Amino acid sequence: MATAAQAGSKIRGNDRFFFMMAIVMALTIVAGFSLSAAMGRSSFASPVRVHAHALIFMGWVALYLAQNYFVVAGRRDLHRALGWIGMVWIVAMIAAGSVVTIAMVRNAEVPFFFTPAYFLVMDELTVLSFAALTIAAVVLRRATEWHRRLHYCGMAMLTGPGLGRLLPMPFLIPHAGLWVFSTLMLFPVIGILADLRRSGRVHPAWWWGCGAMSATMLLMEVVGNGPVGAAIYAQATAGSPGAAVPGQAYPAPPAWLH
Predict the structure, then answer these.
(1) Reported pTM
(2) What DSSP element (H or E) covers 180?
């Protein structure tokens, strides 16, 4: 009886941990975009595609929060039912992410602390990495401990844009991307430490998740800063204002930074 009670307590502790961290990641994203709006770096006058992108991605954040809440509340029936909506949502996220990123490089609107080629590769790989981790989590949905940890790592990838708006990016050139990645890796590190505290061992899902995230970052660096990234950028911007912007040179900083 004592062993069963102990196991039940550990499961509930796990549920609470993932729900609390879902809240922390959601707040990180909201804080980053709220700060950007407050400082006048973003506007509601943006094109429709940007608003659609925001709604789709924030919709995922809400979905992830709801899924973790349903587990804590004991509504696993709702958790399973909502899970299938998530699979369709991922397709919309890949499409919306690509449309907005390609429009930005074609219109020469890349943030000045990234080279345009790196930005293009970084954004595309971030969404694809999120999708791969999330799909793996769905495939392993019957293996609960794998499922929740891979989902968590996928969600951690999506905190990058929020973190990038909280970090002092102009001062992190030429390693702004690495700084964002290093910061978002704190989320799986917290998960690893939580495992060690609760059970004295680290679940292997963390190593697979962290490995996939690290491989994504390595690809960003190698491709985004290399000839392949330059070729992808040239193809994406052909016939647009972005074609006149060197893909692997930093854009001029805005006037307010001088």
Answers:
(1) 0.90
(2) helix 176-184
Q: What are phi and psi of 153, to 5 degrees?
A: -65, -40
What are the tens digits of pLDDT across the range 211-258? 999 999 999 999 999 999 999 999 999 999 999 999 999 988 876 555
What are the boundaries of each domain within the chain? 10-31+45-236
Cα–Cα distance measured from residue 150 to residue 137, given in angstroms and rounded to the nearest whole number: 5
| DSSP tag of 17 | H
Q: What is the per-residue pLDDT for 12?
A: 62
pLDDT number for residue 148? 96
Contacts of 71 (CB under 8 A, 6+ apart): 15, 18, 19, 79, 148
SS3 49: helix
Query: With b meaning 16 or more CB within 10 Å and e meaning fewer, what string describes 212-226?
Result: bbeebbebbbebbbe
* DSSP code of residue 253: P
Cβ atoms < 10 Å from Cβ of 241: 12
C-alpha distances in angstroms, 7 versus 4, 141, 191, 243, 256? 5, 20, 19, 59, 57
pLDDT at res. 252: 83
For residues 53 and 227, what is the distance between their CA atoms, to the nearest angstrom?
A: 29
The pair of three-digit structure tokens given for residue 188, joined into one six-digit string: 């799986």
Question: CA 152 to CA 146: how far, in whole Å?
Answer: 10
pLDDT, tens digit, 9 for 90 and up, residues 67-120: 999 999 999 888 888 888 888 899 999 999 999 999 999 999 999 999 999 999
- Contact of 142 with 8, CB cutoff 8 Å: no
